[in-house]
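To illustrate the input format used throughout this study, we show a single complete record. The first block contains the structure-token representation of the backbone; no residue identities are included at this stage. The design step must infer an amino acid for every position from geometry alone.
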């Protein structure tokens, strides 16, 4: 059996607590973004420097079985750490939307494809438009799709 990388919980208490509640309840608890009542998914990635497992609750933006992962960082001018993890280790990603996590292929979107998904993202969470204006950067959007083969 292959050794699994060690899990390194977030230094932010609310993230640690939400991930723990979500996973312990198979998505029945901790499944909304703070007090917004808007649904979240849990994105698991491998740290770019440490190689340790990192878990991040992100807004649930789903369309036809694919998920947009929005690197808004609340409108900060820099990208969130998980953005760099996905860029460095795109094959080490899982998505949990409900009870069962699944391996995902991820890629950063651009052009018309990003524009279409960005519209979906803003429709799901209107604050994304404000975040982008505040950040002074184009907020990256990744597309996560269920991996069709576990041979990767």
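Output of the design step:
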């Amino acid at each position: 059996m292959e050794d699994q990388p060690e899990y390194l919980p977030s230094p932010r208490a609310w993230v640690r607590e939400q991930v723990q509640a979500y996973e312990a309840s198979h998505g029945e608890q901790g499944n909304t973004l703070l007090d917004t009542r808007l649904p979240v998914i849990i994105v698991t990635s491998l740290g770019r420097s440490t190689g340790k497992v990192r878990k991040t609750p992100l807004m649930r933006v789903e369309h036809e079985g694919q998920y947009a992962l929005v690197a808004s960082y609340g409108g900060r001018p820099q990208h969130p750490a998980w953005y760099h993890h996905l860029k460095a280790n795109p094959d080490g990603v899982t998505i949990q939307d409900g009870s069962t996590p699944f391996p995902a292929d991820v890629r950063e979107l651009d052009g018309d494809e990003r524009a279409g998904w960005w519209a979906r993202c803003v429709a799901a969470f209107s604050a994304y438009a404000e975040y982008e204006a505040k950040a002074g950067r184009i907020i990256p959007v990744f597309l996560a799709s269920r991996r069709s083969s576990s041979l990767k």
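Structural context for interpreting the output: Residues 22 and 30 are 5 Å apart (CA to CA). The mean pLDDT is 93.
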